[in-house]
Amino acid sequence: MPNVELDVEKTESEQESARLAALVSTGILDSEPEPCYDAIARLAAEYFQADSSGIAFADESRVWIKASWGQHPRELPRKNSVFDMVLMEDGPVIASDPTRSLDGDDRALVPMLLDAALFVAVPIRSADGKILGTLAVYFSEPRDGMTPDQLRMLENLAEMVASQLELRRLRNTIATQGNRRLHSGNHFPADPKSWPGSKDLRRALEQRQFVLYYQPEIELSTRKIVGVEALIRWAHPERGILLPMDFIPQAEESGLILPIGDWGMSEACQQIQRWCREDAGNNSLRVCVNLSARQFSRHGLADHVAALLVQYGVSSRQLGLEMTESSLIPNMRTALEVLGSLRNLGVSLLMDDFGTGYSSLNHLHSFPFDVLKIDRSFVGRMTEGEQPLQIVRTIIELARVLGMDVVAEGIETREQYQLLRELGCRFGQGFLFARPMSASAVTELLRLPGRILAEPEISEAAAD
User: Fold this and answer.
1) What long-range pairs does 31-39 form, CB within 8 A, spacing at least 24?
2) pTM of the predicted model as reported, rounded to 2 decimal places
3) Please, which residues have CB within 8 angstroms of residue 425's CB and are 6 or more apart in sequence?
4) d(Cα 35, Cα 45) in Å, to the nearest integer?
5) For residue 135, which of 227, 48, 223, 11 has the smallest C-alpha distance?
6) Lowest mean pLDDT, pick from 70-79, 100-109, 289-298, 302-311
7) Which residues, at least 6 apart from 105, have a Cβ–Cβ distance to it below 8 Å?
8) How many beta carbons lie within 10 A of that of residue 14, not counting itself?
């Protein structure tokens, strides 16, 4: 007998893939703010005398606010969002009690998601009818819903948004075709390294093939595990465990780094919740997640992180966010705004691979980081002579002056370990202590008395 549930899941997956493809073709998610969408949001709010309004689009896991008027709607995970309500109804949603279909845990998100007594949302559709986003108006005071004529007016405004999207899609298509003609005329060779493509990455997300490994961070003076760094891996059914270098560049290029990164943050927060439920002593443990440049450059990042903390009942001090200098420099103004909003949440901010950027010292004092991570290249050379050792000593002293902690990466020998302790480096990670490992393997280490690792033995040097 046919499996009806599997057939339904397959159909829903195919529909979602088609919807996402239509969304990607517009290029709207990575676009700069555009006055036309702001104007439509303002018009909707003024026409209905609403307290606020918003135009939003949704990918696999997140709702992206592209324009708003009045109180700025917050960008949060897609689950239980206004978009999901509209998608489920396949049409307009009018709700005076947004919590009506949510359980106790999800209700905690509603005040952040909808600070309104009533909201009305209509779909924004692609040319072939797929729901890409929503136009919504919010009212802080109770009121009677909307008349059919009023609802139609809101739908007309949503159609204006859809028309702008179609124009954007056509411009993108024309530009792409022009580039293809240019390249074909010059006989550019095809890229032989075309795997993985966006379809492969999307399938990996849908089939939950990505996993997080965790590498412990150690207090060097006591060898106590104080945190872990979350590192993504692809458990491919045919190719085995793949390292980030094998798929992250393609994910960046295709734009799928955003949903993959969102998955990684969500999974890390859920793992924190599991470890704390098993042992309250793990409440002091910090899990650090790496952010890509595209994740970091979005103003809604702090709202998304705040929602995950609430969703999984995680304290902000239990989450660390790591970013490299290269993700900050292209847009200093945005970087400072995003870092400030993350700092206000109370999460730890770590500058990864410190010392490899071209202007680290010039910009470091401007950024509110808590931790510097000394790049493994410096740690690996510190036993080769006085100059490499002096570089590490300078970084540690600089961090001390700025009131920051230091984590040395890539510790692989007892000599490096001893030198770092003598230099006053408090924390470190590397193969000398532990390789990246599964969550279950970390769980066993966390059960050690005091979370203290045994005195390390000399280990074979290798890169993470």
Assistant:
1) 31/66, 31/168, 33/66, 33/67, 34/66, 34/67, 34/164, 36/164, 37/66, 37/67, 37/161, 37/164, 38/67, 38/69
2) 0.71
3) 220, 374, 392, 396, 406, 408
4) 15
5) 48
6) 100-109
7) 311
8) 10
